[in-house]
Amino acid sequence: MHPNAAFRPAQDDLAELLVREIGFAAIFAGTPDGPRVAHTPVVLSEDRTALQFHLARGNALTRHLDRTTALAVVQGPDAYVSASWYAQADQVPTWNYVAIEMEGVAQRLDNSALVTLLDTLSARHEARAGANPPWTRAKMKPALFGKMTGAIVGFEMRIAAWRPTIKLSQNKSIDERERVIAGVEATGHGALAQLMRHLGGDRGGA
């Protein structure tokens, strides 16, 4: 998490909304073999207190994660910010980005909860993809589905701490921020430029 308080989201539910919208995280934890990370789609509970995900059974993190404190990081758009875009002198380049950190203890899900997680994931993302009709596991032979679920392990992380960073030039003046938005957009980072327009409220001062 960035130490500058200007980069904390003002809206209480913004971090939650970004996690739901992005839906993909890196899961970090310490293991006897050293720190490890895995990458996986995630589902945030309705009350925002738990994050569910699944990992391949053979993943280096899987066998060590049960009852272990983990860190989940959901990252949004990011882009380089050139100091040449500022009107004010004596500026330095930086990087604008969105990152949501969640920390908590992970516990292994039983098979029933894992299947529910998979159903939730597929229903959510099939709807986003506009599939008609949407894919469901009913289209698979039960034995094959069971074999494939046997190759993964589900987890639920109870979220003890949220640490979001929404770094969108909030520490710059309105005019300077508009120049950065134009520069970011011109370099092909339209998603970040849109977030800057909608979320990078003026904090005043450079």
Structural account:
The chain is α+β, with helices and mostly antiparallel strands and 206 residues long. It contains six helices and six strands, in the order αβββαββααβαα. It has helices spanning 14-22, 62-65, 111-129, 142-149, 174-186, 190-199; strands at residues 24-31, 34-44, 50-56, 68-81, 94-108, 152-167. It has a six-stranded antiparallel β-barrel with strand order 1-2-3-6-5-4, surrounded by four helices. Strand 2 (34-44) and strand 3 (50-56) form a beta hairpin. The radius of gyration is 20 Å and the shape is elongated. It starts with 13 loop residues before the first helix and ends in a 7-residue tail after the last helix.
Question: What labels would you give this structure?
Answer:
elongated; 6 helices; disordered C terminus; alpha+beta; 206 residues
Briefly characterize the structure.
This protein is an alpha+beta fold. The chain has six helices and six strands.
The fraction of residues in strands falls at 25-35%
- Give the tally of β-strands: 6
Q: What is the radius of gyration computed over CA atoms, rounded to a whole number of angstroms?
A: 20 Å
Helix proportion range: 25-40%
Mean pLDDT: 94
Order of helices and strands: HEEEHEEHHEHH
Number of helical elements: 6
Distance between the termini: 20 Å
What order do the strands of the largest sheet run in, or round the barrel if closed?
1-2-3-6-5-4
Globally, the shape reads elongated
Query: Which structural class do you get from the secondary structure elements?
Result: alpha+beta
Major sheet attributes:
6 strands, antiparallel, barrel
Low-confidence stretches: 202-206
